Amino acid sequence: MSDWSQGYPTDSAYIDAIQVEINPWRWQQSMLFSGRACPSPRAPFRFLELGCGSAMTLIALACSYPQAKFTGYDFMPEHIVTANRLIREIGLTNIEVREGAFAEMIAEGPGEKYDFAAAHGVWSWVPPEVRSDIVTVLNGWLGTGAVTYFGYNAAAGWAAAGPIRQIFRRVPRGRGERPFAAARAAVDLWLEQMGDMAPQAAVLWQKLKDAPDHFLAHEIGSEFGTGIWMEDLAEPLGEAKMTYAGPAVLAEHMDALFLEDEGVEMLRRAVDEGWGETARDLLHRRTFRNDLYHRGAPTVSGTTMLEKMRALRLIAWDEALNIGTHPSVFDQLKRGVDERVLLGFQELCAGDGAPFGACMEAVDAPPMAAFQAVMTALVSGGLMDLRPKADVEAAQETCDRFNAAMMARLRRGGHVPGFAAPGYGGCVQFSRPEQRAVLLGETEDEIFHARLEKLGVRVR
Ligand SMILES: C[S@@+](CC[C@H](N)C(=O)[O-])C[C@H]1O[C@@H](n2cnc3c(N)ncnc32)[C@H](O)[C@@H]1O
Q: Which GO terms describe its molecular function (predicted)?
């Protein structure tokens, strides 16, 4: 390990990853639910990413918001080379990806201040002095009212990974492609011996075991790759005048959809007693948090929130397609909308879609109940909101170029983490091999393609 790494595993490059939760269009709605205004994703905003890796997410965002300016920093030169190769291939001019450690950013200064910032997979992977550098950078580089996103391993669910992390740290590494082969075998053996005594570790390992070694090196081989409690992040961010706003993903604002009645009651009590976020993580068994912080964003009233939500353009959607548009929902929902009510919404929103407000009016219920019904259908995947048509059209050409580059990779058998979806306002992912087969034209799926076209992902 070299000196400049400051404890971060720099022996191998991180995977080319895409993070669907990084999406200014969607953050605007989440901020509204937290009672705060967000810098407008329709304006020419400035967006900063700290520890951007090979910047796949940032590049897709630069394609999706051609009116905005994007800057990414990462201290691993391999990541910067990969990012700049793709930027050149697409021919983008509204993004810059630079090599630099956070400590170097402090000395450099921002030029102009930023409206948005994001740090995904960084805070819970770096030592305390680097965390302190991040706070100093944000303090100097963010403008008034800016919104910052943090994606990080959550202690509540991640604590169970402790023994796996210890095995990865202690079992000697081999050479070549699979340096963790012996550590992997040791984890398998340990879990076999545990039977059903380490259920959460078994679930985590099930999710991680097929990932390549160079991903695991960062995810669990990293010395500082621990889970974090929300309060332990909120406190230092307070030093940079940043206050917790709420979850970045709209669905996560609706706890009652995911918890049994007793869980909702326990959470309510914990919120009253002042330990709501800890209880929330424990009850949801969270292994990861995607949170938004703001630097003095103005408050918005319930009436303004309702007005803005009513204006959203909704289309019929189907979560079962698994296009990565409804992160953190999947099979965890405990409640949903009545089937007939949902079908009514989907009929109304067929084709080009209909406003959220029109769906509310179609429900035979008082306004609050109607609002909740449409919200539930929206966050659970039965409906989807699209950006305004003018914004989609403005982003279409650059997103087409990004997606053409991804399709070329796919045809060469390369790794494609996701696509740029101008209608969605960011990235979407395809996790299933059969979706790749459809994209490559090896199998037919007209419904899948029709849905992609609705998002503005034009790949045939
Ligand atoms: C787990 S990766 C996440 C990459 C990317 N944000 C993503 O989610 O795909 C963490 C990134 O932070 C970068 N990093 C770690 N310490 C850093 C530092 N002190 N200064 C700048 N970048 C750093 C690493 O090089 C790596 O690319």
A: methyltransferase activity
